[in-house]
Write a structure and sequence with these properties.
The protein is an all-alpha fold. It has a domain of 128 residues: Serine Threonine Protein Phosphatase 5, Tetratricopeptide repeat (Alpha Horseshoe), CATH 1.25.40.10. Helix content is 81%, strand content 0%. The protein is built from 17 helices and no strands. The chain is globular and about 65 Å long. The two termini are 22 Å apart.
Amino acid sequence: MNAKTLCLLLALTPVLAAGIEPVDRKAKMTYTEASASQELEKADAIFQARDYEKALEAYTDVVEIARKEFNRSVETEALSQVARMNLILNGPEAGREWLDKAAERADDADPMGWSRYLGVKGRFEWKADNLKAARATFDDMYTYCNTNGLWGRAVDAAHMIAIVATNPKEQITWSYRGIEAAESAGEEHWLGPLWNNMAITYYDQKNYDSALTCFLKAREYHWRHSGEIGKLFADYHVGMTYRQLGNYDEAASWLRPVLAWAERLNHHSAIGQACEDLGEVMVAQGKKSDGLQLLKRAREEYKTARFDEQLPEIWKKLNDRIAELES
């Protein structure tokens, strides 16, 4: 599987709540204003737990609370996140109306609202494959957040610039820049995704030795800070890279536990990816029949995960591979 495509899959279900930085607003707010802020923090915690449907409900509630309290900053953040939840759950068109509402309320004199809005706006542009516009938005976000001392959100911007950059050299440069910013700001939870970005760039260049080094570094931080799915995919990335290096026994030693883990979670995409790589390991080791069965199981899992609709290139590639092995 193409690693850049894999990155896009993971970005729809991020291993952390990218761009969310806890901020103490209470010192400058009345009791009623703090209520909206507190509810936003609760919604962010739900988002960080990756319960996107529940987070959508929570952010929608925050919009109404913030409006009643005339808290425009929190309203802007909540509207932006409602748009983002719809982007994750239902695609760009479902969230566009909410993004437009956030744009109406966003004000560049409001650091928290404006930075959150820019982060979501850029993601909509990215998912629309408008990389030039997304790059400009994340560049603006990076500068703005650094100017306003929003270090966590500046790291988020660097992380996204590395993703949307079309030049591999720029991707690596911005990954390093993000890593340095995260380390300086004490935002260690960002280091897993940032090392992952760099690994994917090297992987797409077929520089598998460097990719493995970066994936192992990413795994170190994912295992410190990410949830179960983040840890699962961190292990999968190591296994898939060992396969590309031709170290099949080592690859299998990572991929088999990943498959069992994914089965326990009933995570169809992860099951499919582990089966696809294990299948190729079996074929490379001369066990064509076993490998073919694993590839067919990968196809079943991808179908359940709607790869045929959402990721047609991966779907076609796997079907072509199965047909090749059966011929």
